[in-house]
Design goal:
Blueprint: H1 2-20, H2 25-32, H3 36-43, H4 51-61, H5 65-72, H6 87-99, H7 110-124, H8 127-144, H9 149-162, H10 168-182, H11 198-216
Helix pairs in contact: 1-5, 6-11, 7-10, 7-11, 8-10, 9-10, 9-11, 10-11
């Protein structure tokens, strides 16, 4: 019964958004590449929307993806709370979530996030990387919505990067976290919501800890 009520909320929300934007289900189908019949079944509570459906709806309707996941009945609270979280405990939690779902088959490791951050450090200091961060961070933030405390840390990191508050090494480290967040295809693809943003939170924690260590030296 609870799932039924949540599905009705999503259907009502989608109907309202389509009406506001003067879009038909057929047009939404064209924009999202989701079959019209599937959209109709989701809106009319005959099928549960999966995370990829919701990400595509959010992108095309220009609404925070978190709003759609809440309406669909998905929990969005399974994420590290702050930079003092036990990262390794969080890694275990992520792996447990992954193993209990059919959404992602690869093993999640902290090393994979660290390697991706290392790869992004140099890129974040190129003109292209800096331009990507300055132009794309706000857009990505709007798509995601305020889905957790790690967003506030990202905003602080963005301000430091934008205002160049830090040494070149610190700005490269900060830039790596921002690029990681902006890029949808990272260690866990963002469309696998809510777990798709857990690795982003872990990346922020790693960067904050690294910056703290360097500040203490």
């Amino acid at each position: 019964m609870s799932e039924m009520r949540n599905s009705n909320k999503l259907g009502s929300l989608l109907k309202e958004l389509l009406k506001e934007q003067s879009l038909s289900m057929r047009k939404l189908s064209e924009l999202t590449e989701i079959d019209t019949a599937t959209i109709s079944r989701i809106i009319n509570n005959k099928r549960k929307a999966n995370p990829e459906h919701l990400q595509k709806f959010a992108d095309c309707l220009n609404v925070p993806v978190a709003d759609l996941f809440v309406a669909a009945g998905y929990s969005i609270d399974q994420r590290p709370e702050n930079q003092h979280s036990d990262i390794h405990s969080s890694i275990d939690s992520i792996q447990n979530i992954l193993e209990s779902s059919d959404l992602y088959n690869n093993k999640f490791t902290i090393e994979s996030v660290e390697q991706q951050l290392t790869n992004y450090q140099q890129y974040s200091q190129t003109e292209e990387g800096k331009d990507t961060i300055l132009k794309s961070f706000g857009d990505k933030l709007m798509k995601v919505g305020s889905i957790g405390p790690f967003i506030n840390h990202l905003k602080d990191l963005f301000d430091r990067f934008r205002l160049k508050r830090g040494t070149p090494v610190e700005l490269a480290i900060i830039g790596s976290a921002l690029i990681y967040f902006i890029t949808s295809v990272d260690v866990i693809p963002d469309y696998i919501f809510p777990i798709g943003y857990l690795d982003d939170a872990i990346a922020v924690n790693l960067v904050l800890n690294l910056l703290s260590t360097k500040a203490g030296n």
